[in-house]
């Protein structure tokens, strides 16, 4: 059954979401895009039309919206007959948008954990601070809310669940590795909103180890991974959304997240952090102006969406899952490799936006089909992974498996 | 003859100037300190009184003043009977303060070249852009204006002149070297106003070589100098005020300035510059706030005056002067070594502020005595160097000489 979609946000990820919704508008129906700056929505629509991405004739409209204003979002949802909201705006909006869904009954999908502008690295598990407090209300009202349905969190949660379903019993370790082996040609740039990017790494690095939360500093614990396609890559233990739900839902005593960083990133990050320029707390200039340093850093850095045309190379993101199977130690690496240039050619965005923007569209298609329309709040690992990965196989993010039986595409020919 | 002094500015250098004026108030008379923030002047006065620095009973008063407002400065000069203004406020004030001196007849002394907030690295020679345009008016009105009377520019200009007078004929090379081998114990800090500090290095590095201006980038040309006390030190060719007057006044085909930098400084500077965070041009944040990045960097860095209590180690600043003497190649290094801790113990400031703040007081004493009261505008190398260096020998900045005859104190016992 076709269901109309509202995309909130108009950055690089929203552009991918719009293209993929358009390519699948036989399933998803009308497409609406809303952001604080309508011109950015217009530009996305222009890009969709230019690529002739609409699978069939249909509605594709831009709206100005301050999504912090719940009443405005409610009004837009009602006026346009929206049944699924894909929220890929800033993470500061999440709870406001979810409230609008609770009020209207529209399904809610996001790709990142909620954040409050003035707080960094709250107590784990982070989902318990905002999202899960609203779980009972979602169930009462029968509102589907799929949390963290990007790549990481999102697809990597489905990989963990797939590993548990088919490859490893008694899981002891889930190590999620995110490597961007691409090159944007700039001195320095972040691949998505610098404000959100830096905030991920300025606080304590929480990991779930031996069934408890451990705390480290960023870049304190590094490890070299030998990965398909991108080869040997140095990654660092980082705090990340999915650790917080997987620690609760997977029964694994160890859940860690590893992010790859080049020396340039680490150096720039270290300088900015040590100087206090990544602070979200305002400072006062000699002239008496109150300024949040992080917002100034964001203002001087390249717009992440500007990187796409010259981005080359590949990403590799996946889960190492260890445990026992049939009484023997078992390990599997479930992963995807994406190419920046191919992503740009298809949807006008770089690979990081592509990997983040395709999965919520797959999630929306599953809500539309009913397979994921669970009428409550769920993290991705609580939902059946195979329909999700099956769609992703067909819309640009194929899954591969590497274990003792070799390195191969995930085969859906037998069971989906 | 005693002459009343007005100190403009209330930073680390102003603190040194106030202490040294107080220690010599038998020559200088009343002491007034004025700044935009009167509380900072009050704190300096408190420090002077605490150290019992006043040589004899006398006036020591604080004033609130916006020195960009010429009429206000004129009024303060008239009201307090000021005959000498020592301007150690921000370099943006210089021409406004000089205009107030031209209007009142008070002598003017500064320590740095005038700057306009929105311009960096104007065409050389820099003094011709603002200061020297007012030279004729100084002469007409009989107003003494001593430009650049800190250490560098200032004492190093007197060293160049001393070299020419006594040590080297037919000068071919003047290489000024400024090494701070001190340690403030912070991750990163500038030793004086970060805004002025960074502006020195963000533009083109102008040097005077083979009788013409050459252009390089910062940190492009480095050289290791083997110096007294501080040993081997890496320094980089930098643009600096004194090159601009010495190139005109000394007849040397080569005038270069070399500043010592540690790896940490270079890395932080490089990161900030490449990101655009040292820009004096405003950027607009996503929220629509207009901000000058450099002012935000200044706001997050340690206040230079806060470094003093824990500063250890020494500075070495001097001139390598090469040429011929009596038909043979000759070379001399004229220099001073200062100690951060000793400076702090005496005047409550670190060594960089000390070396910058003591010389303008010596200049003021020479204006008061008449020896430098030249009734026109002059750069330091145009004035007799020996009385200046003689006073400095007695008030904290002794001069030393190193040449083929060894390393020794400058001896004034024969001729001053």
Automatic annotation (TrEMBL), chains A, B:
Domain named Saccharopine dehydrogenase-like C-terminal: residues: 150-396
Signal sequence interval, chain numbering: none
Domain Saccharopine dehydrogenase NADP binding: 5-146
SUPFAM superfamilies (alphabetical): NAD(P)-binding Rossmann-fold domains
A family per Pfam: Sacchrp_dh_C
Alphabetical list of PANTHER family matching this protein: CARBOXYNORSPERMIDINE SYNTHASE
Protein name: Carboxynorspermidine dehydrogenase
Native organism: Martelella mediterranea
């Amino acid at each position: 059954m076709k269901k109309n979609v509202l995309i909130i946000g108009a950055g690089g990820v929203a552009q991918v979401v719009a293209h993929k919704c358009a390519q699948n508008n036989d399933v998803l129906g009308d497409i609406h895009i809303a952001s604080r700056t309508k011109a950015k929505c217009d530009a996305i629509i222009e890009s969709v039309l230019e690529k002739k991405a609409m699978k069939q004739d249909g509605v594709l409209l831009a709206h100005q919206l301050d999504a912090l204003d719940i009443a405005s979002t409610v009004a837009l949802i009602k006026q346009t007959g929206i049944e699924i909201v894909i929220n890929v705006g800033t993470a500061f909006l999440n709870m406001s948008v979810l409230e609008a869904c609770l009020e209207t009954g529209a399904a809610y999908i996001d790709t990142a954990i909620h954040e409050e502008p003035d707080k960094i690295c709250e107590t784990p598990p982070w989902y318990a601070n905002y999202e899960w407090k609203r779980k009972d209300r979602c169930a009462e009202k029968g509102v589907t809310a799929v949390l963290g349905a990007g790549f990481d969190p999102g697809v990597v949660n489905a990989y963990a669940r797939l590993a548990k379903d088919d490859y490893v019993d008694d899981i002891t370790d889930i190590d999620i590795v995110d490597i961007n082996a691409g090159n944007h040609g700039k001195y320095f740039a972040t691949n998505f909103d610098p404000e959100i990017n830096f905030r991920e790494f300025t606080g304590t690095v929480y990991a779930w180890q031996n069934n408890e939360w451990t705390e480290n500093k960023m870049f304190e614990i590094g490890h070299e991974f030998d990965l398909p396609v991108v080869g040997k890559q140095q990654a660092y233990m980082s705090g990340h959304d999915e650790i917080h739900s997987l620690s609760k839902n997977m029964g694994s005593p160890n859940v860690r997240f590893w992010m790859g960083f080049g020396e340039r990133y680490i150096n720039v990050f270290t300088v900015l952090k040590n100087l206090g320029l990544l602070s979200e707390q305002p400072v006062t200039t000699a002239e008496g102006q109150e300024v949040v340093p992080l917002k100034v850093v964001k203002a001087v850095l390249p717009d992440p969406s500007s990187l796409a045309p010259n981005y080359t190379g590949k990403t590799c993101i996946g889960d190492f899952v260890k445990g026992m199977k049939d009484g023997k130690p078992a390990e599997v690496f479930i992963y995807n490799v994406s190419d920046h240039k191919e992503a740009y050619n298809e949807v006008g965005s770089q690979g990081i936006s592509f990997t983040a923007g395709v999965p919520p569209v797959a999630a929306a298609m599953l809500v539309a089909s009913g397979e994921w329309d669970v009428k409550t709040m769920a993290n991705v690992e609580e939902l059946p992974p195979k329909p999700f990965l099956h769609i992703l196989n067909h819309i640009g993010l194929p899954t591969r498996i590497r274990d003792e039986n070799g390195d191969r595409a995930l085969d859906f020919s037998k069971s989906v």
